[in-house]
């Protein structure tokens, strides 16, 4: 072959593998930057793991995992080569392996964040992707994990989401010990099974949940109690009294109420208005043992949670040592799917460049590059016009990309001039001194009217 | 299953899939930040493509590509499911497809950068990886591409590399039209074959290259001429005269010399001392048609090039329209493999946190979190101590992670105090006003003595 050009017939999107245009990518970058910056302000260290794990490790993660895994094998190995590796489908499984592998070199409690792509072979639909970016934080410790970390997680997430250029959000918090203790207190033995049915409340409603509960063996009275518990919701500590009013007693329930009260109390002090105790939240995964979190955008509840997680007693274990942890994961691609997909957030331009340096004629390129070099030295992103076309054409080049300023070397009596092409105002300027207003330095990412 | 914990037996590295410890990852992040920031200062827009492409497109890229491709298929599909997709092995093939797919929505000439992981199934060795990060820039246009972009690429790369905390580097430049025209001028017909043999110079030396050339059909005199051309190297325009002195005439040679002179002249003006015309550089890939680039670290020549690329007449084509381009790719993982692998560059700490807020007792956590919130609001990364242990133990917690400051709420008569744990100096401070020296705000990434 003689060129990297693909066959035209093959040029098409692949369902579930989203790609962005440059201005949309600037929106994604802004969200990723906010997430990283906030995670780092909270003292989390970055970890990246390889994209693949042995199939056996991925397959052991839940009954439905198999059908979602993408296997990876060398093409040249042909059908003889058994797939030993798969692409990771979350950050938790690889992080657990990373902790075990590097335990001797990490400082515990270990605070890490991890922003990476993951892959799942599920059927694509709005808000569900086969390739997607997740942004996780976890705190993991050796043997014991202090409960205050469960109260810290939603503070970090509240900090991240309040820096996003979007509307209101709410972090819903529950503690698995509350339904666990409550169910045991009213005589239900299949706690996990009951939790899984109650978890369907949002999807199928209370009547069908009650029917399923009774079908699974609870009495109608027990089912009503389960539904009454799941209906409790408060932005303050009111949930404690509401649960008490149901008259159920169990030590695990007491423990759960105290734990959740601590999380909500911390939220009221440091992220007021962001947290709600919502006793309906359960999270499907078996391994959560304490606080669980979900996060919704107000007005977009039908999309479900954009950021979820919880506390687990055993993130990892090597047989001798157990590593408990608490973590939460932001579904970056899901958020972008909503906000970019529906045009709720846009970028002011499609390039980082704030300035286009115009070319007076072909011989003046060296002068133009010197201007660009001086601007870049002071952190001003710019590019030199591709050709010494008419100035009107060069201005349109900038317009098309949303570049706000065009620089004309030697245009004025005193030297260079710079034009704000939105207002048309053109003023004398020196490349060693001129600075655009802060809001023009980088692309601005904002909510559109549709999103306000 | 009840936990995400992997089986202990499976906890091991996979050869060719590098992972870093937190302090090493900070080094990698610094390099990636410098690359992104510099690309954006030069007005390149970010693009990310999906990780997979149809196998047919990947397979058409060169004779040896097949054996390097990782095929991807749904595990649940079993052996019946034919692999239709593969992981991309570079950024060029997916970018070419992206340009064709979005041509109507992009503004040409289109300047894009792309920093992503890629995968190759090759045998791992020092400096070669199966999973690796590349950072590419390309300028692509419709129909024609102005030659000045070939001179611009190495300026961007010189800007990136001179911001790295490493030693000297040199960007070697050639123009494929020079050997092409020269070979034709001395009567060699198999230009590509000759180029491929001469490309082995670094590996096997001039004697073996001459033998191979003669074996391939050249006369000993032709072979000597080829070697004489490949030996030419100059940091200024001297190479033109040296080539002329060999007495060979061909229109393509003239074109190539003029083109390379233009690139070197631009480099002398805007990146003095960084570029060298090196007529040995050829680049293996067939599709380069003009300028080609390689980049070496001085003192680490045996590692070969860390950043390579060139000009191609047809990055992509849909049969009607052809998109010529010029691009260059930084092998980020290769650079880190050298610098981190050999301990030549290190980070001053393993966490972004500049401050550890100490806990006086368990009841003072709320006060400590308030201090942390105030510091973060002013961009100071910090964390609160995990437990109200003895202060000595809390200081050791900071020490172990390289956190330079420990904050003691209410420790002094006037209020809070902060201690620089390196010097031991402790001073009164307010969380609303205190700022660490700029060099302590973020981890410092520096060359070690071994690397100086």
From TrEMBL, chains A, B:
One Pfam family from the record: HGTP_anticodon
Positions of the Aminoacyl-transfer RNA synthetases class-II family profile domain: 27-352
EC number: 6.1.1.21
Keyword ATP-binding: yes
GO molecular function: ligase activity
Gene3D superfamilies per the UniProt record, alphabetical: Anticodon-binding domain (3.40.50.800), Bira Bifunctional Protein, Domain 2 (3.30.930.10)
InterPro entries with a match to the protein in the record: aa-tRNA-synth_II, aa-tRNA-synth_II/BPL/LPL, Anticodon-bd, Anticodon-bd_dom_sf, His-tRNA-ligase, HisRS-like_core, HisRS/HisZ
EC main group: ligase
Region (Disordered): 424-452
NCBIfam families in UniProt: hisS (TIGR00442)
Subunit structure comment from the entry: Homodimer.
Family: Belongs to the class-II aminoacyl-tRNA synthetase family.
Record's protein name: Histidine--tRNA ligase
Origin species: Terrabacter aeriphilus
Chain's gene name: hisS
């Amino acid at each position: 072959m003689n060129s990297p050009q693909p066959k035209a017939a093959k040029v098409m999107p692949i369902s579930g593998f989203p790609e962005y245009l440059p201005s949309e990518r600037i929106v994604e970058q802004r969200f990723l930057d906010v997430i990283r910056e906030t995670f780092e302000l909270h003292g989390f260290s970055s970890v990246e793991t390889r994209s693949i794990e042995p199939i056996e490790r991925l397959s052991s993660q839940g009954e439905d995992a198999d059908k979602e895994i993408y296997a990876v094998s060398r093409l040249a190995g042909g059908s003889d080569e058994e797939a030993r590796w798969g692409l990771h489908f979350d950050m938790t499984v690889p992080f657990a392996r990373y902790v075990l592998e590097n335990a001797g070199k990490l400082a515990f409690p270990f605070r890490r964040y991890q922003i990476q792509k993951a892959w799942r072979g599920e059927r694509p639909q709005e808000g569900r992707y086969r390739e997607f970016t997740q942004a996780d934080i976890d705190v993991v410790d050796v043997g014991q994990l202090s409960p205050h970390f469960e109260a810290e997680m939603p503070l970090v997430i509240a900090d991240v989401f309040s820096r996003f250029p979007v509307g209101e959000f709410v972090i819903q918090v529950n503690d698995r010990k509350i339904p666990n203790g409550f169910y045991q207190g009213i005589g239900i033995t299949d706690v996990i099974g009951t939790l899984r049915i109650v978890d369907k409340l949002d999807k199928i409603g209370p009547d069908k949940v009650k029917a399923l509960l009774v079908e699974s063996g609870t009495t109608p009275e027990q089912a009503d109690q389960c539904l009454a518990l799941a209906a409790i919701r408060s932005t303050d500590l009111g949930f404690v009294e509401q649960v008490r009013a149901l008259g159920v007693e169990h030590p695990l329930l007491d423990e759960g109420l105290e734990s959740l009260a601590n999380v909500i109390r911390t939220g009221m002090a440091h992220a007021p208005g962001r947290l709600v105790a919502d006793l309906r939240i359960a999270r499907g995964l078996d391994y959560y043992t304490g606080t669980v979190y979900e996060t919704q955008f107000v007005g977009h509840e039908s999309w479900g949670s954009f950021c979820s997680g919880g506390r687990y007693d055993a993130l990892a274990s090597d047989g001798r040592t157990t590593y408990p942890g608490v973590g939460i994961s932001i579904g970056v691609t899901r958020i972008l799917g909503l906000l970019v997909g529906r045009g709720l957030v846009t970028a002011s331009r499609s390039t980082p460049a704030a300035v286009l340096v115009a070319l007076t004629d072909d011989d003046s390129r060296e002068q133009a590059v010197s201007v660009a070099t001086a601007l870049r030295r002071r952190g001003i992103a710019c590019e030199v016009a591709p050709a010494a076309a008419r100035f009107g054409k060069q201005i349109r080049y900038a317009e098309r990309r949303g570049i706000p300023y065009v620089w004309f070397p030697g245009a004025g009596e005193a030297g260079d001039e710079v034009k704000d092409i939105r207002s048309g105002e053109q003023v004398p300027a020196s490349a060693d001194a001129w600075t655009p207003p802060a809001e023009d330095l980088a692309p601005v990412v904002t909510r559109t009217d549709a999103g306000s």
